[in-house]
Amino acid sequence: MSPSIPLQEMIRAIRSARTQCEERGVIQRECAAIRAQFRQVDNGGARSHNLAKLLYVHMLGYPAHFGQMECVRMIASPRYSEKRVGYLGAMMLLDEKQDASLLITNSIKNDLAHSNQYVQSLALCTLACMGSAEMCRDLAPEIDRLLRASNSYIKKKAALCAVHIVRKVHDLGELFAPAARSLLAEKNHGVLHGAVVLITQLCERNPEALERFRKTVPDLVQIMKGLVISGYSPEHDVAGISDPFLQVRILRLLRILGRHNETASDAMNDLLAQVATNTDSTKTVGNAVLYETVLTVLDIKSESGLRVLAVNILGRFLLNNDRNIRYIAMTSLQRIVGTDHNAVQRHRGTIVDCLKDQDASVKRRALELSLALVSASNIRTMMKELLLFLSSCPPGAQSSSCQRHIPCGRKAGGDVRDETVPNLIQLITNTSELHCYTVHKLYRALLTDISQPSLVQVACWCIGEYGDLLLKGECQETEPSQVTEDDALDALETVLQSHMSSPATRGFALTATMKLSTRITENVDRIRSIVSIYGSCMDVELQQRAVEYNALFRKYDHMRAAVLERMPVIEKNSSGHTNGETAGDAVKEIQPAAVKQTGPLLPQQPANQVCDLLDLLGGSEEPLQPSTALGLPNSTSTAGGDLLDLLGGLELTPLAPAPTVPVYEKDGVSLTLICEKTSDSGMTVTLTASNSTDSDISVFTLQAAVPKSVQLHMKAPSGDFLPARGAAKVTQMVALNNPNKVNLKMRIRISYNTSQGSAYQDTVQIDSFPGL
User: Fold this and answer.
1) DSSP letters for 35-65
2) How many other CB atoms sit within 10 Å of the CB of residue 174?
3) Where would I find the GAE domain in this sequence (predicted)?
4) 708: exposed, middle or buried (Cβ count in 10 Å: 0-12, 13-18, 19+)
5) Confidence of residue 42 (pLDDT cuts 50, 70, 90)
6) Closest CA to 533 of 520, 523, 542
7) Residue 233 CB burial class (10 angstroms; 0-12, 13-18, ≥19)
8) Which of 209, 316, 399, 462 is the most buried (most CB within 10 A)?
9) Sign of the torsion formed by the C-alpha atoms of 26, 32, 36 and 38
10) Interatomic CA distance for residues 401 and 378, integer angstroms
């Protein structure tokens, strides 16, 4: 292949290669010829011809770094044809990290002062594309000068170049502020677009600039009104909308200027109402403008009627055939459901219909929004829809919905988290008017199916707590049914004897059986017999409970009614939210007042009984602690009846909680890590992210990578939305298995979208894991 063949011929030869090996051969021969010609004296414009071919080779992914110095030489050339290819090569082959980029700084400065506007444009585009911080500092005065030029074409390019400089060097923003303000008086849409983008960057990075540019709100409103009411303009019309790109940029800037400022918000209320009512929503372009209008209305201090109008626009989006539009509508409604709950409630039917969508992401958003709309007035209707959805949704969604909101794990089967049981018990305890209804429903569920551990545990707990209500059979909300004492004990005994019951489930059933001894009158001896059987159980937990309960029957029968009375209302002790309330909270065990008062009434035992190992409670002078009898099965009694404390006086010190270690802190986003060892080679890492900025963060995702010999499993995150000022957090659990005991390292990629719509991505490496 001749070195002088045109670019088109080289492309044709590469495309005609039958194999990758043949393609590499063609490219290697051509690159060798290009290298040889680079060393020769320029021969009739061959330099630009060869560099163009090299850029095509670079686009195919082959190395082309040897052309960097040729780019520098061609940029310094007086010929426009060579400058054009040289600047293109610099943008593709050079970046700010390479020293060669510093060599073109002087050439760019000279070309910025060139008399030809197209040469100036080449220099501006290159600086905006790959200018380093040092280049930006050196050339910023030249850009400020071009911002005041008379040529609209140059001012547009200079404004966009200034945006890059402000992003690279924040301190230079003050230099461009006066010129940016004057650009708003231009008539050229390209210049206006560049000015709005520049002002947006200045306001986002400097609070002083934000206050200064709030004075430009009337000017921006006038520009926006001119776009909305202007007639057809072939130059700027897109699907019947006049310059939607400029409209969207202006709306974003107005949102920043009106946030937390009532005066600026009042100045733009009429404009936003006009845009919301006059923009055509049948086209995608119109929907884009309407969506930005809605975001602006919801983010500023707007009037209540205008906020309702914005919510109604999102409601119309829910009826759109485009799934992307439905998704962003539900995402926006999710953000405001806490502040504009009634307005969102009007679209509840449409939101619930989205649960039937085929798209998994739309369905997930619809579920989250539907759960947020559940209230006391619509809970019956909503629960029917949500339970119907649970019967057909994926297991992951079942787990999430049951954990967060739905007070019934039956539809979700075994796909519920461990903390669902105490959370549901807490919910039942705090809803006294539904105790009778709940115990009847759970009793029937227990008779139907005992293969679902979470449901069985809650049912056993309710039968033990509210067995008297079950036996009365006076629940008005269920069909009349008579449950006898034998029926209730048969159900619990079935759970105790079932091979499907775990030790924890048997613990619930045994405690419920013991509690029924104070709620029934004729079958106390049967309960005593059931409890005594488990006094020799192989499971230590069940054996301990049975021994303690037997001691209550034998020695402290007069205290049994007080010890086994109903649990009080369970308080909440951790943060979270469910429709404005906390959810997912751990349950505090509160000892009844009656039990605390009975401590001094315990009889003193003879000293010779202290050594009687079969009378574990007899030798204890400590008051009887009813935590095991009253609380959940995972509690451990610390009285003298602890089987691990047979010698007496041995106190078990609880394990200290795993330390929380910060691993990332940047731009208001922080990430902490907690490690817990689950086995000899396994561990669980809990990552918790929070947002301390004044703006919400959406589409927040975490990705993790570990050495190849380590097995990694990332569980579903708690969400992907981080509200401003740390109002809520996102947690992500990662299970690791390190069978080869290699030096463990983890690299985490953090990505999210800011409220201004810009995407952000960063990476952090964790080299040590505390607590292991």
Assistant:
1) HHHHHSPP-SSHHHHHHHHHHHHHHTT---G
2) 14
3) 656-770
4) exposed
5) low
6) 542
7) exposed
8) 462
9) positive
10) 17
- DSSP codes, 278-337: HS-SSSHHHHHHHHHHHHHHHHTT--HHHHHHHHHHHHHHHT-S-HHHHHHHHHHHHHHT
* Residue in this structure with the two tokens 């029937």, named with its chain if needed: 444
Question: Which structure tokens are listed for 737?
Answer: 């298995």
> What is the spatial distance between Cα 332 and Cα 291, in angstroms, rounded to a whole number?
9
Q: Three-state DSSP class for 572?
A: strand
Comparison of pLDDT for 476 and 670, the residue scoring more: 670
* Separation CA 534–CA 540 (nearest Å): 10
Residue 270 CA to chain centroid, in angstroms? 35
625 vs 602: CA distance, rounded Å: 12
Q: Could you tell me the two tokens for 12? A: 């044709």
CB 689 within 8 A of CB 722: yes
Asked whether residue 601 carries a pLDDT value surpassing 60, the answer given is: no
User: Which tens digits make up the pLDDT trace of 317-352?
Assistant: 999 888 899 999 999 998 888 888 888 888 988 998
* Strand ranges, E, within 392-526: none
Bridge partner list, 754? 697
Select from 100, 35, 87, 98 the least CA-distant residue to 64. 35
Q: Per-residue confidence at 203, pLDDT binned at 50, 70, 90?
A: very high
Could you tell me which residues come within 8 angstroms of residue 386 by beta carbon, excluding any fewer than 6 positions away?
355, 367, 370, 371, 374, 401, 405, 406
Query: Is it the case that residue 602 has pLDDT exceeding 80?
Result: no
- Write 137-140 long-range contacts (CB < 8 A, 24+): 137/169, 137/172, 138/105, 138/109, 139/105, 139/108, 139/109, 139/112, 139/165, 140/165, 140/169, 140/172, 140/175
Rounded Cα distance, 550 and 532, in Å: 6
Residue 141 and residue 154: Cα distance in Å, rounded?
A: 15
Instruction: Name the phi and psi angles at 388, rounded to 5.
Output: -65, -40
* Helix 524-533 with 503-516: angle, nearest 10 deg: 150
Q: Residue type at 636?
A: T
- Convert the pLDDT of each residue in 745-765 to its tens digit: 888 989 998 877 788 889 898
Tell me the one-letter amino acid at 119.
V
422-451: b (≥16 Cβ within 10 Å) or e: bbbbbbbbeeeeebbebbbbbbebbeeebe
Overall average pLDDT of the 87-105 stretch: 85
What are residue 750's phi and psi, to 5 degrees? Answer: -110, 125
* Global pTM value: 0.61
Q: Tell me the three state secondary structure of residue 676.
A: strand
**Which residues on adjacent β-strands are paired with residue 675?**
685
Separation CA 416–CA 584 (nearest Å): 12
- Cβ atoms of residues 218 and 265 within 8 Å: no
Q: Which residues are CB-neighbours of 480 under 8 A, at least 6 positions away?
A: 473
C-alpha distances in Å from residue 169, one per residue of 28, 197, 449: 41, 16, 66
Q: Residue 680 gets which letter from DSSP?
A: S
Which band of pLDDT confidence, cut at 50, 70 and 90, is reported for residue 604?
very low
Query: What is d(CA 635, CA 629) in angstroms, rounded to the nearest whole number?
Result: 9
Residues 6+ apart with CB under 8 A from 8: none
Quote the percentage of the chain above a pLDDT of 70: 83
Question: 665-692, pLDDT tens digit by residue?
Answer: 988 899 998 888 888 888 888 999 999 9
Beta-ladder partners of 211: none
* Residues linked to residue 107 through DSSP beta bridges, in sequence order: none
